[in-house]
Design a protein that fits this description.
Helix content is about 35%, strand content about 15%. By secondary structure, the chain is α/β, with parallel strands linked by helices. The chain has 2 domains: about 140 residues, 3-Layer(aba) Sandwich (Rossmann fold), CATH 3.40.50; about 100 residues, Adenine-specific Methyltransferase, Domain 2 (Adenine-specific Methyltransferase, domain 2, Orthogonal Bundle). The chain has a 7-stranded mixed sheet, with helices on both faces. Helix 6 crosses helix 7.
């Protein structure tokens, strides 16, 4: 039987799976020769880069961060209690798949209501077994909601509607077990990206995948968090990028390329003018007219 390859267990807007080859081709050489022993990702999101690199290189230690408490919760449960998570998710999947479309819709909204009400009762920063069913609910909704989105309202409530999939892949036990193993050398931190600075050293590789700067008024990759991520946040991140550079770490950042829609927009070129910037192709849909959708570029910023 073929070995299951570690990859994101959640669908995630702006995920980097499609860019892994471009990213891998630009990694610092020290990752391959033992000069880099720690990996840090201050915006873990779906974790495509983390799962890929930690599977290949088995860093001595990894530190992943996110400001989204539900995401931190899910990663922690997967690392610490994968079998209980699988059992809980298997029960939900069996109940859901036995229903007709109307019953599935009712089941989905019942889970969503329970998930949102449970937010007030759970302590996000002290791990307990209460986290396990909540992580299962998150994965379930991610697999059955519209377009696999994670979106919250201003109060932090999950508000994505039901998705009408005929046979959604709700449970992938092999993948969950594989991802859990990859997480075994990883510390999972809630909080702001700046909290990661204490772990940055000369032997670290830091990869930044922040919420992308919207390319137009109708596109946004910032809705996974109730706080948002505006241009001032992007500037604060650029300042933090420079701090990591001064500590001697190898660092890489990805973001949208505003020149896709305005060739005169030098927002990121100005912010990261002291570093190497490359533009790489990506299949992001930035036009509401399907006939005009196609390949766009994204930026990669590196200090090596």
């Amino acid at each position: 039987m073929a070995k299951t390859i570690a990859k994101p267990f959640l669908k995630w807007a702006g995920g980097k799976t499609q860019l892994l080859e471009e990213l891998t081709n630009r990694l610092p050489v020290d990752i391959g020769n033992g000069g880099i022993t720690s990996f840090i990702e201050p915006f873990i999101g779906g974790g495509a880069v983390f799962f890929h690199l930690n599977s290949l290189h088995s860093f001595r230690e990894c530190h992943i961060f996110d400001s989204n408490p539900e995401l931190v919760l899910a990663y922690t449960v997967l690392r610490d209690d994968p079998e209980d998570l699988i059992d809980c998710l298997a029960s939900m999947a069996g109940e859901y798949l036995s229903l007709d479309e109307s019953g599935r819709s009712d089941y989905y909204y019942d889970i969503r209501d329970r998930f949102n009400k449970g937010r007030e009762a759970i302590s996000f920063w002290r791990y307990s077994k209460e986290w396990i069913p909540r992580a299962a609910e998150l994965i379930f909704m991610n697999r059955t909601c519209y377009n696999g989105l994670f979106r919250v309202n201003s109060k932090g409530g999950f508000n994505v509607p039901f998705g009408r999939y005929k046979n959604p892949k709700i449970l992938n036990s092999d993948l969950l077990r594989t991802d859990s193993g990859v997480l075994s050398n990883t510390k999972i931190h809630p909080g702001d990206f700046a909290d990661s600075l204490r772990y940055v050293r000369e032997d670290s590789f830091v990869y930044f995948d922040p919420p992308y700067r919207p390319l137009n008024s109708t596109s946004s990759f910032t809705s996974y968090s109730s706080g948002g991520f505006d241009d001032e946040s992007q500037r604060r991140l650029a300042d933090f990028f420079k701090k990591c550079d001064k500590k001697g770490a190898k660092i890489m950042l990805s973001n949208s390329d505003p020149k896709n829609v305005d060739p005169e927009d030098d927002f990121f070129d100005d912010l990261y003018g002291d570093f190497r910037i490359e533009r790489v192709p990506a299949k992001r849909m930035i036009n509401s007219d399907a006939g005009k959708r196609g390949e766009v570029s994204e930026i990669l910023v590196m200090n090596f």
